[in-house]
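[09:14] KT: can someone run the structure on this one? pasting the chain below
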Amino acid sequence: MPRKDKVAFITISRFDGSDGTISCMVNTFNDPDSVPGKKAAVEHKDFVPIKMKKIEFGPNEVEYRLEIEMPDCEEDGEDVELEEADTVSFGLQLSQPTPAGVKLSKKSMLFIDIEATDENAEQAADYERRKMLDYFLGTKDITWGQQFKIACILGPSIDQDNLVVQEVSAGAALWHFLAIFWKIFGALVPPRSNWGGWAAFLVALSLIGAVTTIIG
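[09:31] RB: done, structure tokens below
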């Protein structure tokens, strides 16, 4: 999770029935031997530790949302050293299930990574998003030639209603290549700004007639 999020939300689930009341204890740990291959987080500096916290599931309750806070060093007036910008980790362990007969699954332990906030990368991404929005707003009335270029481009799109940049998904990329012929075919229709829209109307009718003739 990014350090800037301030709070980690962990969902603990109950399986194989929801009758009666059950409980268990939750503890965080950060000793280097228990966080193999990772840099251990520091209690009260990177996260607020949890010690012997009892969580309880009542009848028909199957989920418990646990919150782990991340202190804000800047708000406390402390200077964050460069080494603290590294990704650090700590663990969460469930134990002591009750009553008798309640068992913990093999997923009773969890490691949480606190990732450094890369402000430069975020600013660069925000700049690219704003550039795309500016480009979209400035070129809403595109030329006929630009239509063919846009039909072939695979990249983030703009939600015209909310002006939000939508990243390309795997499904969108697949459909783009499958439908690229029809995208280019549709680009043959001139922009509606040409001849007051009559050019688009006449060419569209001609293309519809051609497709109907071929299919028929």
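[09:33] KT: thanks! The first strand starts at residue 7 and ends at 13.
[09:34] RB: yep, looked fine to me
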